[in-house]
Amino acid sequence: METSNKVSEQDVIRAIRQVYDPDVPLNLYDMGLIYKISIDGSKVNVVMTFTSPNCPMADFVLKELHEAVRDVPGVTEVKIEVTFDPPWDKSRLSEEALLELGFL
């Protein structure tokens, strides 16, 4: 009997929310750094950005994100694409992030 482990976007988002920006007490998802999540069977593609193209912690964040998504049940392959188009700005912050940072 074969069990189907369908990877859900909610599970991927939950995993991404466990990865925090090293400089700000916020996770990558609520910071608005995740532009797109695509799931094709067991393969997950994440398109993301950083607050600055010169982020000194980019390699660390990418490694943490890759490991978090890879650990989602059913995921066999993770691809992370970094883009700066469009550039990140504060309008991408979630309501939770705005509250955490005192902007609301």
Briefly say what this structure is.
The protein is an alpha+beta fold.
Descriptive account of the structure:
The protein has 104 residues and is α+β, with helices and mostly antiparallel strands. It has a single domain (9-96), classed as 2-Layer Sandwich (GMP Synthetase, Chain A, domain 3). 26% of the residues lie in helices and 18% in strands. The chain has helices at residues 9-16, 58-70, 95-100; strands at residues 34-40, 43-48, 77-82. The chain has a three-stranded mixed beta sheet with strand order 1-2-3, with helices on one face. β2 (43-48), α2 (58-70) and β3 (77-82) form a beta-alpha-beta unit. The chain is globular.
Number of helices: 3
Which fold name is given in CATH as the topology?
Answer: GMP Synthetase, Chain A, domain 3
Shape: globular
Radius of gyration: 14 Å
* Amino-to-carboxy terminus distance: 52 Å
Largest sheet: 3 strands, mixed
**Strand arrangement, largest sheet?**
1-2-3
Overall pLDDT: 93
Task: Kindly state the percentage of residues in helix.
Answer: 25-40%
Detail the topology: elements first, then pairings.
Blueprint: H1 9-16, E1 34-40, E2 43-48, H2 58-70, E3 77-82, H3 95-100
Features:
single chain, 104 residues, alpha+beta, GMP Synthetase, Chain A, domain 3, 3-stranded mixed sheet, 26% helix, globular
